[in-house]
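Saturday, quiet lab. Running sequence design on the structure tokens for the scaffold JK sent over.
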């Protein structure tokens, strides 16, 4: 027997970027032919993609850890490393992606709709790409950025047009079995249905889907019976059908009271108030049932419901019901804003990659947060002084040094770049870190140098632009 899994926790790891390569071209009689280290490849993304042939999340229940492959490192001779491969995880139509706190990250509807669950890390630039007019032979390369790690929750909401709600044993599954080709389990004990059943109904030209929900009882909103948990499956439906039992032997029940109780539970759940509803009085093959149905019908109609008397067992009144539902579904579809185009790619909330913040924390530590400075730190090989110097230049250009100074940082103060659990901490040395006040670019101290002639300034500007451009190229648009 297969278990129906409609909620799974998934751990996804994108691929890390490959490291850039630091290499120097060698040729006979030309021992130092310039830098030729290639760039590292980008790590693969992990994508969730709606595939209509998939109907459960079972696979992820069995294998909740998934990862994409890493980018390959760059090599000498200007050879770039290969990009890692994206990992595509097929999910059923109607899968909702949440974070562990329960916030909805994406709602995946429509074949081909995809969601980037974890982003591959960028590859590091090789020293060939890092070379510029000013830095002719960089003796370092950038490291690849680690791939994103995410813990997400997938929830499946059945995408049905019509939802059947009602007490246990009212005959919801029986109705699905006679309206469609689906063969759900039917039995005379309550809570036969433990997970929703889905059937496809054809009525004339219209094809629609119909789902039942495990039986509801008074107090379901407080968790009685199977609770209201399964109502999330009907949140997408466009028509609600109250299936009322006209032949129940329980003395305190009758169709109108049942309807009131179920309505109250739906109200507690919320969000379904605006769905059109109809009433089905089932089991009219039972003589007492037929009498009761006729008795309550005027009352229900007076409340504005369209009422259908049927028997799932004796196949009475079904055609009328299924055509009425087809008509309502048709109306709902016509009223809906045009189906969103499929193949939408949903990205996690865009990171703000422009800014950064500097905050002094209680213990005196200055913390720098921002997409760029944090990534740059991860790209830095701290065993290589030149690489550290390059990082300092980048931070300086972004204005981090100036902000630190503004925030009151002094030489020797502790500075952390990145979040608490993953920060690079160092003692701030404005002179080493190319202090904004005293130093210009790495290696020049304008206190010692004469003002730069115009040609030099132009060359410097060009070099700066080169670097900005590389930074931009490195950022592969998705
Ligand atoms: N006489 C009669 N019995 C019916 C009719 N429809 C369903 N039943 C019986 O009622 C019982 C419950 O039917 P189900 O279809 O399993 O009811 P359900 O609403 O899906 O119940 P849960 O899954 O427990 O919520 C079964 O014994 C059915 O045979 C009907 O039209 N007439
Ligand atoms: Mg059932």
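Result came back. Writing it out in full:
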């Amino acid at each position: 027997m297969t278990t129906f899994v409609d909620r799974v926790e998934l751990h996804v790891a994108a691929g890390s970027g490959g490291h850039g390569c630091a290499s120097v071209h060698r040729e006979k009689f030309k021992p130092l032919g310039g830098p030729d280290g290639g760039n590292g490849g980008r790590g693969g993304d992990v994508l969730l993609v709606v595939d209509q042939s998939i109907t459960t999340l079972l696979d992820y229940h069995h294998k909740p850890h998934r990862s994409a492959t890493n980018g390959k490192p760059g090599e000498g001779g200007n050879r770039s490393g290969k990009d890692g491969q994206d990992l595509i995880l097929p999910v059923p139509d109607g899968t909702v992606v949440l974070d562990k706190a329960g916030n909805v990250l994406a709602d995946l509807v429509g074949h081909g709709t995809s969601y980037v669950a974890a982003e591959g890390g960028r590859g590091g630039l090789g020293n060939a790409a890092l070379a510029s007019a000013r830095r002719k032979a960089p003796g370092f390369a950038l490291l690849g950025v680690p791939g994103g790690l995410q813990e997400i929750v997938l929830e499946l909401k059945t995408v049905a047009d019509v939802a059947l709600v009602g007490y246990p044993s009212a005959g919801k599954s029986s109705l699905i079995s006679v309206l469609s080709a689906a063969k759900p389990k039917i039995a005379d004990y309550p809570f036969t249905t433990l997970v929703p059943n889905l059937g496809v109904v054809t009525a004339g030209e219209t094809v629609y889907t119909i789902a039942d929900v495990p039986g509801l009882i008074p107090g379901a909103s407080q968790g009685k019976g199977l609770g209201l948990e399964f109502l999330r499956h009907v949140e997408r439906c466009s028509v609600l059908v109250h299936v009322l039992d006209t032949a129940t032997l329980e003395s305190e029940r009758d169709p109108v009271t049942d309807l009131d109780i179920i309505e109250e539970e739906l109200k507690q759940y919320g969000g379904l108030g605006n769905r059109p509803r109809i009433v089905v009085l089932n089991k009219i093959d039972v003589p007492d049932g037929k009498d009761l149905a006729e008795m309550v019908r005027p009352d229900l109609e007076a409340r504005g419901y369209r009422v259908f008397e049927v028997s799932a067992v004796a196949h009475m009144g079904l055609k009328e019901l299924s055509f009425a539902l087809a008509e309502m579904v048709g109306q709902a579809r016509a009223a809906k804003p045009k189906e969103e185009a499929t193949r939408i790619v949903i990205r996690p909330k865009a990171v703000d990659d422009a800014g950064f913040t500097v905050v002094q924390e209680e213990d005196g530590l200055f913390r720098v947060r921002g997409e760029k400075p944090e990534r740059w730190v991860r790209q830095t090989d701290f065993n290589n002084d030149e690489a550290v110097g390059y990082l300092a230049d980048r931070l300086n250009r972004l204005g981090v040094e100036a902000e630190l100074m503004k925030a009151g940082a002094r030489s020797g103060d502790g500075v952390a770049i990145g979040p608490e659990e993953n920060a690079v901490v160092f003692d701030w040395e404005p002179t080493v870190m190319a202090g904004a006040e005293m130093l210009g670019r790495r290696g020049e101290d304008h206190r010692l140098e004469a003002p730069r002639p115009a040609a030099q300034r132009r060359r410097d500007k060009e070099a700066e632009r080169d670097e900005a451009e590389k930074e931009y190229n490195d950022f592969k648009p998705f």
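Notes for JK: The longest helix spans residues 454-474. Confidence is low (pLDDT under 50) at residues 432-449. Ask whether to fix the surface positions before the next round.
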